[in-house]
Amino acid sequence: MRHKQGSPHGLRKSTLCARTAFALAVLVFASTFLTACKKKETTKTGTILALDTFVSITVTGQQSEEAFTAAARRLTELEDKFSRTKEGSEIDRLNHATEEEPVTLSEETYKLLSTTLWFAKDTDGIFDPTVGPLMDAWGFGKDERKIPEDARIEETLSRVDHSRIHLLPDNRAYVEEGTVVDLGGAAKGYIGDALMQEIAKYKVRRAILDLGGNICAFDAEKALVIGVVSPRELSVLAVKVDLPKKEASAPMSVITSGAYERYIEVDGVRYGHIMDTTTGRPVETDLLSATVITTNGAEGDILSTVLFAMGTEKAKEYAKTKGIGCILLSEDGTAWVNEEWKESVHAEEGWTVRSF
Amino acid sequence: MPKKDGRLEASDRKTDVQRRFRFLPGDLLIILVILVFCVVFWLGFFFQGKMTDKKAKYVRITLDGQVILESALTRFAEPVEYSVVGEHGTVVIYLSSEEVYVKESSCEDQICVKTGSLKHTGDGAVCLPNRLVVQIVGGSEETGEPDAVSI
Hints:
- The structure holds 2 protein chains of 2 kinds.
- Chain A is an alpha+beta fold.
- Chain A has one domain: Roll (T-fold), CATH 3.10.520.
- Helix content of chain A is 36%, strand content 27%.
- Chain A is built from 9 helices and 19 strands.
- Chain A has a 9-stranded mixed β-sheet with strand order 1-2-6-7-10-15-16-17-19, with helices on one face.
- In chain A, α7 packs antiparallel against α8.
- By secondary structure, chain B is α+β, with helices and mostly antiparallel strands.
- Chain B folds into 2 domains: 3-53, no CATH class; 56-138, N-utilization substance G protein NusG, insert domain (mini-chromosome maintenance (MCM) complex, domain 2, Sandwich), CATH 2.60.320.10.
- Chain B has 3 helices and 8 strands; from the N terminus they run ααβββββαβββ.
- Chain B has helices spanning 3-20, 25-54, 111-115, and strands at residues 57-63, 66-72, 80-85, 90-95, 100-105, 124-127, 132-138, 148-150.
- In chain B, the strands form 2 sheets. In chain B, strands 2-1-7-6 form a 4-stranded antiparallel β-sheet. Chain B has a 3-stranded antiparallel β-sheet with strand order 3-4-5.
- Chain B starts with a helix and ends with a strand.
- The interface between A and B is large, with 44 and 31 residues.
- β8 of chain A pairs parallel with β8 of chain B, so a sheet runs across the interface.
């Protein structure tokens, strides 16, 4: 009791000390609490050799570790289903099935196969899931890369035809003798979305998947910037795209097709890997690359190939009627962007953005 | 102390508290000091970020001769463990804004792990069995790197 009745000066001094201590305690507590909260969020990133390419997964959030593991597991599972070269995969079994003995596919393989067939019909075979043997004839995927003889092209073309794939009820399907199905042109896009669905089951704020150059990404807090490589010089960008912020349930894919990455060179002439199923030769196009921006990865994967093969004028028309978000890089340095996305696409040096 | 005194103290508490927590001139001083501290720290961090950004160092990781990661070290303010799963095995690389090192490797000789910390431009660690190279390279001063690149 005595100190309370002490001089006002003494009182002031002791409360001053108490107040300082209290204020500092609050400060220390607040800062440690805040940093502790922030620390909970981690980034997990890794590159996995899959789908004959590099697959990079980068996840940020409170459960980044779990989300990464789940995505990696799903990647292996889907590769085992869709691979054409892996013995015993669903596509491998489909390629060995006959009318008498059709194969029963899983729901998702059947659905993806139906999607590719729908686009094959819609584009009159510009996109065709049976193009595999033709690419083999040109030596893509193998070391011997050479221009095949006309007779070989003729023979191969007779087997390249999506109408030789037959879908039956109850997820069953078969292909006619000699025809080979390869989901390669749609699988990476589909897998991007499928991995994202796994990631969305966890507390994740941001994820970026790079499936051999196909980007599938979302960020719940800020816009993402995705670069599109310049086909003239692969170390620089042609344009940058701003993707709006999105939740994990609605990721966006940015998928590019071009002939600059996979090609064979014979006598100084480059032959790209995207085939024209009417001539059996690489497509002739005035586009350097076509990029599709979409919420549906499988469709984006298919459509980027289709737009690239069509060439500038036809691609613009097709994209307009179908409402496809796209960037078409043409030889004269123009980046054609559809009206909807023109505000979000920014040209780098040497390129000019024009909308259509 | 008798109980009576204790009760007396309790009933007095309200006025006591009021008296104790009157706003005193000293409080202003404390608040000012804390504010100044905050501003100084904030400025410190702000400028440190700016300075390091200008002479950014990059980490480049190649697997089988292909670049699989190239990123400014400043991006790893929060350290990241980057695992590379190749045909030959798995390598875990620790990435932070301060240093980079190979944390784990599936190889037998563990030379890459023994190389230790990589901090300066030119530093590098190689894992021959896994065909992996980690390097610190000098970066350009360009800003506004994209988050990902579509090829």
